[in-house]
Amino acid sequence: MDHLAQSRLLSNMHPVGQSPLLATKLRQPRARGSLVARPRLTERLRAGLSRALILISAPAGFGKTTLLDEWLTGEARATPTAWLSLDEDDNDPIRFLTYVATALNGTRESVGAAALTMLSSPHPLPTKVILTSLLNDLADLAEELILVLDDYHTITEPAVHDAVTYLLTNLPRQAHLVIVTRAEPPLPLSRVRARDQLVEIRGAELLFTLEEAETFLNQAMDLGLGAGDVRSIQWSTEGWIAGLQLIAISLRGRRDVASLVERVSGAHNYIVDYLVDEVLDRQPEEIRRFLLQTSILRELTGPLCDAVTGRRDSADVLVRLDRANLLVTPLDEERLWYRYHHLFAECLRGRLAAEQPDSLPDLHRRASSWYEGQHLVDEAVGHALSAQDFGLAARLVEKHGPGLLRQGRIVVLLSWANRLPWSLVQAEPRLGVLVGHALALGGQLADAESILRSAEQALADRPL
Question: Degrees (nearest 5) of the Cα angle 301, 304, 307?
Answer without folding.
Answer: 145
